[in-house]
Design a protein that fits this description.
Helix content: 40-55%
Low-confidence stretches: none
Order of helices and strands: HHEEEHHHEHEHEHEHEHEEHHHEEHHEEH
CATH topology of the largest domain: Aspartate Aminotransferase, domain 2
CATH superfamily of the largest domain: Type I PLP-dependent aspartate aminotransferase-like (Major domain)
Largest sheet: 7 strands, mixed
Strand order of the largest sheet: 4-10-9-8-7-5-6
Mean pLDDT: 95
Structural class: alpha/beta
CATH class of the largest domain: Alpha Beta
Number of domains: 2
Shape: globular
CATH architecture of the largest domain: 3-Layer(aba) Sandwich
């Protein structure tokens, strides 16, 4: 089946059917939304939690499952946009938090667990110096500031389509824009991601294409010639905002060489790849060591935490007091205790073997379904992360994502999954994040829901 053979009216009809089914099963969520909207914009704490016509609200989670306010038990393949790779309420992490809480939850003063975690991360990610923050967004914000101080430059280069948190300098050229406004590949436009972002911040951030070293090089070398040599290139080593887009062979090595040539600080945003795909993240997986790394989400089992790693040379700007990398709650005892328990006791070699086993099974299952129905889709996955791209061409960057991804099927897939007891990240392709607590039975449920979707759409 070719993409143009998929019946668009059928997709619309199935979407209407599945939406009605969801609404029939979630009356308490609707009631809660009516209450929430009075005091919370969109009825949620973050715009990414919103859903039209209303969001589903949840009560608790245990292991690989979460429960809605209507009592539905859901297999969680969303996992907090990837931060719950340890599973919900992991007993070892809960125990560590409980023990730490009895000793005091916050001092604004240093504790030993932060030292131990810095030692662990230095070994895993091959960078010697570390600081802790409360989120991936904070980590990115501080890393860019350190890079600017180190280089004495202002310009930031990022990949078009990547999300790096919600500060002004990186809320640029993420997506959700008119395709015609992107511009040529060697001169992408700097476009704001929503309102309230100063034009000065937009102009200071330059997007380039992922997996296209030639056009990335052209853009950076033009900036150098213009007297605007970048302070840093910040990038996800594998893009995780468009599903999963892996680096093409040689791309990361090429970026590393390019940034070294021009004295640009290379920052790997490993908020989603770090810990989730290997103990040492993309550095372990692909062997390319950047100047700085940002971590978040998964490092501390769902507690507020992030980290910044750097070379001794770059981090000297913090060490000598030039850059004030600060935060009252940074390295707080609860998060450090959770991070240490996760790193030492939970995310073990056996845990990663289990994730790889599960990911292999979900990929094999979804591939088999697509082959059976001759359906235009393919899988991509590494360790706990993966997706099915509803595409009849390979997605390597944002432009190919817009060109090939079937966005109507993306929305329908979320509904199909939810109504069959599975939740995935909303607004994406068929994307999953596994936890170490998922079982083969959870994988079977996922593949079964996917099979029903493809069967119905292929009818």
């Amino acid at each position: 089946m070719a993409a143009n053979q998929i019946d668009r009216q059928l997709i619309a009809d199935l979407s209407d059917r599945e939406e009605k089914l969801l609404e029939e099963q979630s009356p308490k969520s609707y009631e809660m939304f009516q209450r929430a909207i009075k005091h919370m914009p969109m009825g949620v704490a973050s715009t990414y939690h919103a859903r039209d016509p209303y969001p589903v609200y949840y009560t608790h989670g245990k292991g690989p499952h979460i429960w809605t306010v209507d009592g539905q038990e859901i297999a969680d393949f969303h996992n907090g946009y990837g931060c719950m790779v340890q599973g919900h309420a992991h007993p070892l992490i809960v125990e560590a938090i409980q023990k730490r809480a009895l000793l005091g939850t916050q001092f604004g003063l240093p504790t030993e667990d932060a030292i131990i975690m810095a030692e662990h991360l230095a070994g895993a990610f091959k960078l010697p110096q570390w600081r802790f923050v409360n989120s991936g967004s904070e980590a990115v914000m501080d890393a860019i500031r350190v890079a600017r101080s180190f280089t004495g430059r202002d310009t930031v280069v990022k990949m078009f389509g990547s999300y790096h948190g919600h500060m002004d300098y990186v809320m640029v050229s993420i997506g959700a824009v008119d395709y015609g406004k992107i511009g040529p590949r060697d001169n992408y436009a700097s476009l704001p991601y929503g309102g309230g972002i100063p034009q000065a911040a937009i102009d200071m951030t330059i997007p380039v294409p992922f997996n296209d070293l030639e056009n990335m090089t052209k853009r950076i070398e033009r900036l150098v010639d213009e007297g605007r040599a970048p302070a840093c290139v910040i990038m996800e080593p594998a893009m995780m905002n468009l599903g999963v887009v892996l680096p093409e062979p040689g791309f990361l090595e090429g970026v590393r060489a390019l940034t070294k040539k021009h004295g640009i600080v290379l920052i790997f945003d490993e908020v989603k790849t770090g810990i989730c795909t290997a103990r040492g993240g993309a550095v372990e997986r692909w062997g390319v060591v950047p100047d700085m790394i940002t971590l978040g989400k998964a490092i501390a089992g769902g507690t507020p935490c992030g980290a910044i790693g750097g070379s001794a040379e770059v981090m000297e700007k913090v060490n000598d007091g030039t850059v004030f990398q600060v935060g009252t709650y940074s390295g707080n005892p609860l998060s450090m205790a959770a991070a240490r328990a996760s790193f030492e006791q939970v995310m073990t070699d056996d845990a990663y073997k289990h994730l790889n086993h599960l990911n292999d099974r979900i990929i094999e299952g979804c591939d088999a379904v697509c082959k059976e129905h001759d359906f235009p889709a393919y899988t991509v996955g590494i360790s706990s992360k993966g997706c099915v791209n509803f595409a009849d061409g390979k997605i390597t960057d944002y432009e190919s994502f817009i060109k090939f991804q079937d966005h109507e099927l993306v929305a329908l897939a979320w509904l199909y999954n939810f109504n069959r007891g599975v939740v995935i990240a909303p607004g994406r392709e068929e994307e999953w994040t596994l936890s170490i607590t998922h079982t083969d039975a959870d994988i079977d449920l996922y593949v079964s829901a996917f099979a029903e979707l493809i069967r119905d759409v292929s009818a």
